[in-house]
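Thread: Newbie trying to understand structure tokens

Hi all, I'm a second-year student working on a class project, and my supervisor (Dr. K.) asked me to get a predicted structure for one chain before our next meeting. I've only ever worked with sequences, so writing a 3D structure as a token string is new to me. If someone could post the tokens and maybe explain what I'm looking at, I'd be very grateful. Here's the chain:
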Amino acid sequence: MTRQDPPTRPSPQSTKADLWAPFRALTPARIGLGRSGASLATGPLLDFRLAHARARDAVHAALDEPRLAGELAALGQPVLTVASEVRDQAQYLMRPDLGRRLAADAPAALASQAGDYDLVVVVAAGLSARAVAGHAAPLLAATLPQLAGWRIAPLVIVRHGRVAIGDAVAQALGARAVAVLIGERPGLSAPDSLGAYLTWRPGPRTTDAERNCISNIRPAGIAPADAASRLAHLLRAMRARGVSGVGLKDETETRVPLAPTAHSPSRLP
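---
Reply by user tm_fold:
Sure, no problem. This is what the structure looks like when written as tokens:
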């Protein structure tokens, strides 16, 4: 007579993994991670380190400006490239104030193209050149046709620019509104998130409360095509009501489907 081994029972860890599996399918957030003693199991730990490395790479990567300028020019708009007062990426991270001011030669370059414009679009790498390289051109390709009849200023690429630098660009070009497309701070599940910051009648005293923001523009967040509809809607509402920021409610929230995401930027780039 042969001896039979007793039936094996699932370990608490494997049971926990099975319980969490349906929830993991709904979000990129790290939930129900397996452990080995007091530490993460090898798989989740390596995944975390890879995500952290991608986020760091996104912050330090340089934007291929000539390539971006070519993609934007293909949309049928003139493209200008200027710089902020920042000299390099290291200073950009340490001195946000310099990224909000145009370099000494930039105002003259912009003034040569000044006119009576409804909108200027400013593009800056921000904290994720990857986001701008991947999503800025598709977003504008889907947005500009929805603004038929608008007088659009030349598209402006600003090297080492922050959100507020769009105010100075709009003033120099004579635009009543500005949309700043900028790479957002990478998260551990989103190294390629693009933000769009919209301001009506920007000036030197404009505050963040006077801006509207569409955040998390990326295929796994708000797809560029959906973000374009929201962007065009907000711009039309801004012009019709003469206000932006806290005075303008985003009424597209219930109309634009959002993919589940764990990324939520905490402050402006």
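A couple of things are worth pointing out once you decode it. The longest strand covers residues 175-183. The radius of gyration is 23 Å. Feel free to ask follow-ups in this thread.
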